[in-house]
Each structure stands twice: as C-alpha cells, then as structure tokens.
Amino acid sequence: MPRRFTIFSTLCLLLITLLYASNGYTQKAPDTLPVAGKTAVDRVSADELRGRLSFLASDLLEGRATPSRGLEIAAEYIASEFRRAGLEPIGDSGYFQNATVTIRRRGGGEDETAQARNVAGILRGSDPVLKETYILVTAHYDHIGKREGEGDTIFNGANDDGSGVVGVIEMASVLAKMQPRPKRSIVFMTFFGEERGLLGSRYYGKNPLVPLEKTIAQINLEQIGRTDDSEGARVGAANLTGFDYSDVGAVLTRAGELTGVRLEKHPTASDAYFGRSDNQALADLGIPAHTVSVAYAFPDYHQVGDHWEKVDYANLAKIVRMLTAGVVLLAERPTPPAWNPNQPKAARYRKIWQERYGNLSP
Predict the structure, then answer these.
(1) d(CA 320, CA 46)
(2) Which of 250, 276, 292, 319 could form an S-S bond across to 27 if both were Cys, CB 3.0 to 4.6 Å?
(3) Which fold has domain 28-356?
(4) What are phi and psi of 147, to 5 degrees?
(5) What does pTM read for this prediction?
(6) By C-alpha distance, which of 344, 284, 248, 341 is closest to 22?
(7) CA dist., res. 217 & res. 331, Å (int)
(8) What is the mean pLDDT of each run of 10 residues along the chain (362 residues)?
(9) CA–CA dist 305, 299 (Å, integer)
(10) Where do the domains of the chain lie?
C-alpha cells in the first residue's frame, strides 16, 4: 500500500475517532476475553446456583418482605457468601449499608420507620489507574412476603429476584478467583425494598459507597432464572432494558456472542421496563445502568408459585456466564460506556451526567 494512502487513512480514522469522542459515545468493545476471564466464565456452576436459590427462596425466609425477619436472614446469608468469596466489605457496618426508611402500608397509611440493609462488597481492580473506577453488579433480594389464608401463603420470589441474587453471588465467587483480577473495580450489591419502590437503590444513590462520578456502569440482574416466558420459551436468550440507550448493550451483545447467548431488544418491553427495576435509580444520576432479564412476565409472577424448583438452572448458568463475560469486557475496556446521543430516550440521562460531572462521558 502506498505510504501516502496509509497516512491519509490514519488521519481519517483519527478524525472519526475524535468526532465520536466529542460526542462522548463509542460502541467499540473488546473482541475477546483474557485467559483469566474465560476461566472465570467457565467456573460458573448450575449446581452452585441451585443450592443457593433453594435456600433464599425457601419457606423459612417467608417471602423476604421489606422489612421482615426473613429479609434479615437473607442479608446475613448474602454477606456470608461475599465473605466466603473474599470480597472486601465496603458498607458502613461490614458488608451492610444500614438504612432507616419509611414504609407505606399496603392499602394506605404509613408505618414507626423501619431498618433495612443493602449488602455490598468490592473486588478491587488490578490496573493502577482503572481500579479507581467502578462497575456495579446488582440485584434486589427482597420480595413481597406472605399472605393470610390456607394452603401456600408464602411468596417465595425464586425468580423475582432470588435468581438475580444468586447470579450476583456466583459472579462474585468466580471473578474473585481471577488472576490477574479485572482492571476496573467491581462492586457486588444486593438491594432491599425494590418491591416497595426501589427503596434500597435510591438510598444507595443518595449515600454511595464508591464515588458516583467514577462509577462507569451498573448491570442489574432481574428474573434471569425462569425460561417459561408468557410469550413463549426463552432459552439461550436474554433481554436488556434500554438496549440502545448506551453502548453497554454493545458490550453485552459481544459477551453473548462469546458465550452462546442472544442478547435482544424486546420490541416494547425493553424500553417500557427500563424504569421498573433498580437500574433506574442509578440512571437518574447519569450512570449508564441497565437490567438484564430472561422473562419479563412468567406464569407465577408475584404469585405464591414462584418456587426454586421451577428455575431452569442450566440456562441460568448460561446467562450468568454471559454476564460474567460482559463485566470482564467492561472492566478491561480502556474507555467507559457512554449514553447514546442518537437515542432520544437516553437524552435526559446524558444531560444529567453532563450537568452533574461536567464532561461528555458517559
């Protein structure tokens, strides 16, 4: 190739790169996982997921309402799993971020205030610069409790969202074994009170445990265990809310290609559900934040029949492998993800970031 053409091509590429950079948006994602990342992905175990979920969604925890004794047991269990994985505690009390919240009674009126806890641990990054930036991997560990009456009275919440919680724990367990660790730091967190109106995630947004301006993305896990979607079987596929709102979608799509999972944009629900889970609290602070689900609706949604035996554990493991790969790709990526300037629905979040942190990225 003539040298003159090579220089011209290089200049054109540089110009295009600068134009994208000035917009604060890029869809470039790493092509492959590092060897240590692939090993971590391969460690994800369906049996580990089944064992954990059979406890979290057991009748003993009585549906994990916020607040309740069952929710406290769940919090202690999650903290013990973070401890076993070797995560560093970053709460105000070990792995716990303690909160005082006001709970509205169902049907009207208000409760004495209640105590509740987010559960959080961190895996510090290996890069001397990038370790000062953070990826949040989250799920909500509460559900809606129990009802009066005869027969089955407990809303076990196995899929909603016990499946997401055990996914977070499993990702923490396998990524903590990576050598070298991912370049960016990863915060693993489970929230209380999602079913009460995103209470735990909104509390975190007001009381962050790591700097918000250095938090590059949130990947939230919600309903990733059941494949009997109300629209038909969902095997080897996952949905992403706000699929094209930021280039997190491009990174997770690549992770799906590497692990045999189709990441899809549901024609209506991907946008409609963006504001219905804990990603919304972080998006409202300008952080690229999305929720991954397998089924948006399934036969036992918010019913007493959402039992751990109905989860497809082979598929759950496949989804967690994809998510693990996606988090590694985000952590290894030299540039943070950015809101899509060409997606009108993302404009408010991009504006919030710019107003809060004074730059165009994300």
Answers:
(1) 9
(2) 250
(3) Aminopeptidase (3.40.630)
(4) -125, 165
(5) 0.91
(6) 341
(7) 10
(8) 36 37 47 94 98 98 97 98 98 97 71 90 98 98 96 98 99 98 98 97 98 97 97 97 98 98 96 97 98 96 98 98 98 96 97 86 66
(9) 9
(10) 28-356
